[in-house]
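Example with several molecule types.
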Amino acid sequence: MTAYLIATLTLVAITAITGLALNLQWGMGGLVNFGLFGFYMLGAYICGLLTVQGVPPLASLVGAMCSVALLSALVSLITVRLSEDYLAIVTLGFAECLRLFISYEEWLTRGTLGIAGIERPFQGLVPAQLADTALLAFTLIAVALVYGALQALAFSPFGRLVRATREDPAVVEALGKSVLTVRFKVFAVGGAILGLAGSLHAFYYTYIDPTQFSPIITAYAFMAVVIGGRGSNRGVLISTFTLILVLEGSRFLVDWVPHLGSSELAAIRLILVGAGLVLLLIIKPDGFGKEPRSAEAEIRSFTST
Amino acid sequence: MLQLLLNGAVTGLLLSLPALALSLSFSVLRFANYAIGSYLTCGAYLVYLFNVLFGWPLWIAASVGALGLATLVVAIDYLAYRPLRKRSGVTLLVASMGVAIALENLVRLFAGNSPRSFDVAVARPLRFGGLRLNYEQLTILITVLTALVLVWIIFRLTRLGRAMRAVADNPDLAAVRGISRGQVVASVWIISGVLTAIAGVLVGLDANIEPQMGWNYLLPVFTAAILGGIASPMAAVAGALTIGIAEELATLVMPPHYRMIVAFLIMATLLLVRPWGLFGTRWVTR
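Resulting structure tokens for the full complex:
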């Protein structure tokens, strides 16, 4: 029971990190990243491959964060000449191609066999029976650090600039700021955070293969942001640690409800996620959290509608 | 070589129906519907239901299934997209992703994950000189060309087609001239639904029916629509043919499982060089 709780909490904490990353990109910046799971997968694979090669886990983690940040920023440049709408399909395309590449380039990624034996950080320092608890603590510290950093960013002048770009890119351009630079930086920072989340995934499972990564990861992150309130980091944390915890915890039901296999349950869970996403966008578009400095936003929405 | 071109053209025709449906709904509603892949899956499964479980001949099952999907698509528009129409296109994008996930898993819940196929007789490929043409490919060729001609007639020669073009061009002006936007939107969804269901049947004939089938077509379909300049429906057909042939020719230098990467590379290059599409006009805003 305790082991189950620790496992679920670790997964939920990793989801919280992806939710925070998406909250920066879509919540604050209005940039739709449907390929979120691809960047996450990339982080997991870079981190996993590096540790298997004998690189210390913490160094692999940093390596994964930096390379995903760079790649994610480069992908955002493909739409250099276009409005944000195209980012959605470009990021999704990138993620799907990455998944194909990882599944077939066996010389590098061992394909569908996956990478086993990924070393966790501080593995030598904690006794084996406490390994999962230690990783949970490590993940929660990561959540706290990401939250702190994004909160600082949200209240900084750059945070204002990001929100302004979401509301009206033309005004931002007119004030002499480059919308493109904002997009590039937001994708770089978001990519680094997704690289971190992916690395934690690799550490948690200590084994990765391409089937673990699917658009469902993206869906969970969107769900967390929509419920938490676009732009509210605190809201995203609260929503992941309540709703996503319940959704993840529902795996339990398999043992309790007869005639319900785990694949049916997974399908029902995802139907609820999809339908819930649409429903929330319709009835509660601002979510339950509040974006910092939303007083101005309220005045703006009041005057514009 | 000629065989590759022929295969490519057939693949392209297969892509052209959903690409046409996608850009048709984009031109009128100005949002990219990510649920188009799962519409295709649903269409294939509906037809499978009538064809295999009820035992109807495929063409009757396909007609009924297409109408069924059209109804479903209109209902989804009414429930999910209509309340959001006043919001930004980005919100609609996210909503359509929600619809896609819900539909795909609805299929998984009722039909399971294992691949299925339609109840049709297996036939020998036809041969013309050195060229080989499958029975399935022939079906695709005839069905798609007929569907395209019908859509072209609706689009160019009927009152409804004129209304659709008017709303796509300038919704306010169309409204002033007394064109009912609601009716046009509904007919656009009906046409999209029928086209996507037909595409689902053809994909199911060509390969298997499985819950992921539509998702795998999403990227090539979007690329085809963007190639045509996303808001010009008939150009999407040309875009689809280009993608189909390019994917097939790329198998000369790349393993066949990387077709999706070909589509992605084409899209990335296009967005960098000619974002308004190969055939579209330059209306795209930054």
